[in-house]
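agent: user wants the structure for LysR family transcriptional regulator (Chromosome initiation inhibitor) from Halomonas campaniensis. delegating to structure tool.
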Amino acid sequence: MLDYKLLEALAAVVECGGFERAGDALGLSQSAVSQRIKALEVRLGQPVLVRAPALAPTPAGQRLLNHIQQVQLLERDLRRALPTLDSASPRLRIAVNADSLATWWAEAVGPLCREEGLLIDLVVEDQDVGLRRLRDGDVAACLCASPQPIAGARCVALGTMTYHPLATPAYRRRHFPAGPTPEAFRHAPAIVYGPHDQLQHRFLAQCGYRGAFPFHLCPSSEGFVALARAGMGYGMVPLMQAEPWVARGELASIAPGQVLEVPLYWHFWRHSGELIERLTAALGTVALR
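agent: tool returned. relaying tokens verbatim.
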């Protein structure tokens, strides 16, 4: 039989990014957490964590993390059927892209969280890389742009978010007087969410430009729009987020008619229990655009 206290220690170390913070989360000393990890490795006969250059689960550790995520979800269903087991609130760790979090996510999941007393531990990841978190066992579910489910998981299409290349009218007049030309793209500062964000590159390729371009890095969806509204650059902004400023004329497309469609998919482990099924159903009611 597996000792789930050991698996919980492993999950806490990975989620918290260290032994000391994992101990704080579990109400244990750093030494106690370290001893649990060591006991797990002795029982397994192989390491479950790589300590350097950065703390990360080994392939065996990832398998165990996948397992404990699913067990925790199934335990939640059992607590609902047998409420006297304990009164702890259910918690889900989910990877979500920043643009969804800034627009439709809260409205979609809020009713279920209030009804179930559900606590959500959100990990903000670009829509192109969130699936890695699920594969590594770090999250129970994720939103991402990949339609291909990983082994043992399900994938549900949620819809498409439409991105427009937006800037202030003054910025557009200054940097794109002749429209979206290669020369303008070569010199006009763009705004990019982070090192994994490929939306800007896809837009430029769609416009026929594949060269280098200057850019600001801004890992905040709200800050991203704030930089654009301040005239610091142009960037790919979801239509549903930008509508108020577009309607008031504060933001406008630098390439009218050019948009980028990004599909979103909800990935979660099979046999994860009723709570994930209900969350999936709630997300299915969202009208993305």
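agent: one observation worth passing along. The domain at 161-261 is CATH 3.40.190.10 (D-Maltodextrin-Binding Protein; domain 2).
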